[in-house]
Amino acid sequence: MKLDIYYTALKTYDSDNKNGFSWEEYKKFSEINHLKELVSLDGILNGLAFIPDLDASEEWKYMVTENGMVMFFFNNLEYVLSKVNHLEFFNLLAVIKEPTKEKADLSTTYDFIGYDLIGIGGDVSALTNCGGFDETFLPNDLNAYGLISEYDKAKKILKELPINNPEEQHADCNLYEVWRHKIIGRKTN
After folding, report:
1. Which of 51, 96, 104, 170 has a 20 to 30 Å separation from 7 between CA atoms?
2. Alpha carbon 188 to chain centroid, angstroms
3. What order do you get walking across the sheet with 6-10 strand by strand?
4. So what's the pLDDT on residue 117?
5. Other CB atoms closer than 10 Å to residue 174's CB: what's the count?
């Protein structure tokens, strides 16, 4: 089975953050004190690094849509790069929705950084932007990027979230495998 690989460029969120929720406030809120950088697919915390022109019909062929919703993923790497060529820092990500246990083979250009759980029909991460689901996972289950490192653990959390939180809208999620480009958009320090 061939996996679809999508691309996106998201804003960085770390101790150098100058917008919105301060880094220290976020770590206190999330209780993920061991974070070195948040590299989530969450559209609020790590929003798109660029604004697509939704009025340009040409751009729609690159945007991933699902059930009538525009996602923050794109099917063409060159398109994403053309949108961020003026930016100094961002996270260039390759993502696989509903991956298999065998990871994609992207390691020559990207570093695997973990799995994220994004609420179905939205762009909120159940791992990093819902205030915690302590009956399903704890902050120390997340890696230094705010993601789950092991596939089996991510699948277990994905399965248990809606069972343990039947009234929570962000508990029904899709699983994403997340890879970050080794060089493009990265800080050098």
Report:
1. 170
2. 21
3. 63-66, 69-74, 6-10, 91-97, 173-181, 110-119
4. 96
5. 16
The separation between CA 151 and the C-alpha centre of its own chain, rounded to angstroms, equals 15
* pLDDT, tens digit (0-9, with 9 covering 90-100), for 27-68: 888 899 999 999 999 988 999 999 988 888 888 899 888 766
Predicted TM-score of the model (pTM)? 0.93
The answer to whether 10 and 46 are in contact (CB under 8 A) is yes
Q: Is 141 exposed, middle or buried (0-12, 13-18, 19+ CB in 10 A)?
A: middle
Q: How far is CA 32 from CA 7, 15, 86, 120, 123, in A?
A: 26, 13, 32, 23, 20
